[in-house]
Amino acid sequence: MTRFQPFSLAHSLTVIALALAIAAVVAAGRSAQRYGTERRFHRIMGWTILAFWIIYHAYSTLTTGFQWTSSLPLQVCDVTALAAAFTFLSNHRLAQTMAYFWGIALSSQGVITPDLSGGPTTIDFWGFWLYHGFVVGAGVYAVAARGYRPTWRDFGIAAGIGLLYAALMFALDVVSGANYGYLGRPGSSQPSLLDVMGPWPQRVPTMVGLAIAAMAMLQVPWSIGSSRRKRSLQP
Questions:
Q1: d(Cα 184, Cα 200) in Å, to the nearest integer?
Q2: What is the pLDDT of residue 229?
């Protein structure tokens, strides 16, 4: 129980529990809308995520020490966690766009192939899954409770920010030997898609291309639905 094993029964049960927790937050948000307490609920959720973001990184720094190559909050999930917080604290479309495309398409990879070593008896385990629950769940909440409906323009914004992020993190990783965005040489400590993408740095364009494709796949159903609605309204 002190070690996490990817693709195990414990992993599957944890993912199911995470999905149920996200569904519960969506249900609570919808209930808050009906009872007129939505604003209070959103403030509580948003500030909770921000507080957890601070605590999560402070704990990591205190337990492992600060290192320029690993301690900065520059991973995809770290950036998306801030968007998740502002998805609740504001009604800004950019925050919802980032939470949806980066949270579901990109950060969900941390749920599927967790870069985690500690098991359920460790603080690291609970911190990791709570963190990713917030990150992935905010995108789901934006669609299921806040009525966010992405467009190809939103996809373009999320993809453009993603390309800029990849360029900056790759340059930082090359110069410092870090692994921000998993765009550096080390890759992942656990089995992941990186294992089948070839050696570094040749795998980097593939990673970026797959990330853009994953975000595009999240937009396709909405575009199909919009086209069908338009056709149904035509005389």
A1: 7
A2: 66
